[in-house]
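ok so i was messing around last nite and threw this chain in just to see what happens. nothing serious, just curious
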Amino acid sequence: MKTFFTKSKLEVRVPENLEEDDSQRFNFNQIEKAMEYYNKNGYVIFNHLIEKKHCDSIRSHWNTYVKNYKGKMYRQTSGKTEKNNFNENNWIMNPILNIQSLNSKRFKIFKEYIEYNVFNNVLLSSVLNRFFKKKPKIIQSMYFEGNCVTDEHQDTYFLDSNKIGTLAAAWIALEEIKADAGRFFIISGSHEIDIKKNKFYNDILSNHKKYIKEIISTSNSMDLKIKAPYLDKGDVLFWNSKTVHGSLDSQSKTNSRSSITIHAIPENHEHLQWHRNLIKTPSDDLGNVLIYRKKDQNIFTNRCIFLFESFFPRFFYWFKNNYIRIIHKQTYHKQLS
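result:
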């Protein structure tokens, strides 16, 4: 075991291998037992849902098509357009946001390989289908290589189904994730916390850190355990939108953490943002799963916005941030009236 800390300085004991890990894990043929575990703990691990050969091919395409690209892309850490930010190991530290929305002229092979072998994967989509009892609709995806470290948070505030707590997310390991590579962690059972009792629930946008601090305090009072499970190549960890999670503040000099994250809701549910705004999600049907392509770069209008955002970032983000605050306040006061 190794000891690392979250960004909020919570101590986490991290297993270095499968033998040290006490997190229960399941094969696909144990899906009913896996569902029981998920409902109780707010997360569940499946062994080898994605074939290792696909994981290797995806990383190869990443090196060929993404790491050699000199332009900008939308990034998970900021939501902004940025060029690749490399560390001393030549790992990209600013993860890509929404693989499915990349420009096909530049990233066709990389994007379509992931869509076919991960998003539309029979086993992965079947697990989500079992969660929802409906065909899943992926509304967001991300690709990580280096560990950018993520604060404790719940997805539900940023994105969820209109039936709060329904969204399910998945972290797909594209390589063996070593203990010091920036493990994904969850607070087991935190999805059961009644978030509406949090005194900052109705104004999370202005008080997000205070909201999370209270959630963590509640987790501690309930004696909930932090888990940073071992994941091998092709393993998938699913978690609930209300489960507190993040990635550990550890920076390996030798181990990357190549992985893909997806967030999905049932096909007949609407996408809810900030617990207030309903987002339209026109989707493509890949067969086993639907996919929403936010800011799809194959659409001319979206490419124009991307260019304006890239060349005039100061004005664009000033306008965007003020617009968000205005809309959020209007919706908040409308709910109170």
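not much to say yet. The chain has eight helices and 20 strands.
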